[in-house]
């Protein structure tokens, strides 16, 4: 292989790595992962525990929020989304991570302080 071909291959590899590292978690992703939780976190819910789909979404979201910036983004999306749920049961929303066995700090609420997101993976 010539030097130009090797250089071009290395440049392409760098571009692919930097492009994949720049992928952000969007609010659409957050809402999609947590959508199955809605029936559990509303006032008057008859569910005694979150569904498997709900807890699976919580676990997926936690695993995908690798950096502190990701966790702050997720936190802000959750906060904004919870503010839009008129019949939200705040205690169920706050207890959702524990009910799913997934520790997350701060606890989900419309008033959560996203500057308090832990350094670890949404822990």
UniProtKB/TrEMBL annotation:
Alphabetic keyword roster: Lipid-binding, Signal, Transport
Gene3D superfamilies per UniProt: Plant lipid-transfer and hydrophobic proteins
Domain Bifunctional inhibitor/plant lipid transfer protein/seed storage helical: 27-114
Signal peptide, first to last residue: 1-22
GO biological process, one term: lipid transport
Region (Disordered): 103-123
InterPro entries named among the record's database cross-references: Bifun_inhib/LTP/seed_sf, Bifunc_inhib/LTP/seed_store, Plant_nsLTP
Molecular function via GO: lipid binding
Taxonomy, superkingdom: Eukaryota
Chain segments annotated as coiled-coil in the UniProt record: none
Keyword Transport in record: yes
NAD keyword on record: no
Purpose of the protein: Plant non-specific lipid-transfer proteins transfer phospholipids as well as galactolipids across membranes. May play a role in wax or cutin deposition in the cell walls of expanding epidermal cells and certain secretory tissues.
Family of the protein in this entry: Belongs to the plant LTP family.
The protein's name in its UniProt record: Non-specific lipid-transfer protein
Organism of provenance: Stephania japonica
Classification lineage: Eukaryota, Viridiplantae, Streptophyta, Embryophyta, Tracheophyta
């Amino acid at each position: 292989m010539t030097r130009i071909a090797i250089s071009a291959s290395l440049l392409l590899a760098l571009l692919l790595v930097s492009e994949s590292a720049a992928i952000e978690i969007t609010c659409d992703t957050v809402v999609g992962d947590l959508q199955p939780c809605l029936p559990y976190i509303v006032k008057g819910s008859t569910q005694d525990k979150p569904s498997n789909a709900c807890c699976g979404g919580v676990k997926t979201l936690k695993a995908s929020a690798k950096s502190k910036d990701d966790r702050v983004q997720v936190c802000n999306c959750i906060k904004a989304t919870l503010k839009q749920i008129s019949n939200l049961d705040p205690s169920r929303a706050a207890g959702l991570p524990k009910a799913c066995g997934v520790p997350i700090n701060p606890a989900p609420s419309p008033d959560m302080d996203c500057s308090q997101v832990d350094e670890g993976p949404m822990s």
